[in-house]
Structure formats: C-alpha cells, structure tokens
Design goal:
By secondary structure, the protein is an all-alpha fold.
C-alpha cells in the first residue's frame, strides 16, 4: 500500500467518522429517518456479505475441483477452505439482527 493510498484511506475514515457523530446528534430529532437508515444498513450488511461470499466461493470452488481431480485424498481438508467464506454471511446475519 503506497503512502498516497494510506493518506486517502485515513482521510476517508476521518470524514466518515465525523459524519457518523453528526448523524448521531440528529437521530433523536428524526426517529423515522434513523430507523430507515438502520434498515438500509442492515440490508447492505447482509446483501454485500452474501455477494462477497458468492464471489469467493465461485473462485475457491473451481480451484477445489481442480485440486481434487489431481489428488482425491485431499478432498476433506480442501472442503474446509470452501466453507470458510460462508462465515461472512453469518456475520451479515449477526449485523442484521444487531441493527434491528
């Protein structure tokens, strides 16, 4: 990661953090907006987690099939690597329930 990327990332995090603090103060005044944004956040947490898992499992699955074709005795241990990205969807469900 270059120095430029680190500066951009740090400024983005700082900008988002200050926006979050400002939103927290205004949330008490407009509860409907707060509930709506919370629902959007919960949907994004689950939806983007599922999309990321699908992309990861597609790539891992094709590699898994190739590796098992070469050496079928490693199928059990390689299946674990196929199941690891599924935890991302579980974390999405967890965020969905925490936000609601």
């Amino acid at each position: 990661m270059t120095k430029y990327n680190k500066i951009v990332l740090a400024s983005l995090v700082l900008a988002l953090a200050t926006t979050g603090f400002a939103q927290e103060a205004g949330a008490a005044a407009n509860d409907d907006l707060y509930r709506g944004l919370r629902a959007v956040g919960a949907g994004l947490a689950l939806g983007l987690g599922a999309v990321g898992t699908g992309i990861a499992q597609a790539r891992i699955g094709s590699s898994l099939v190739g590796a098992v074709a070469e050496d079928p005795s490693k199928a059990g241990s390689l299946l674990l690597y196929f199941l690891i990205p599924e935890t991302l969807v579980i974390f999405g469900f967890l965020a969905l329930f925490i936000l609601n």
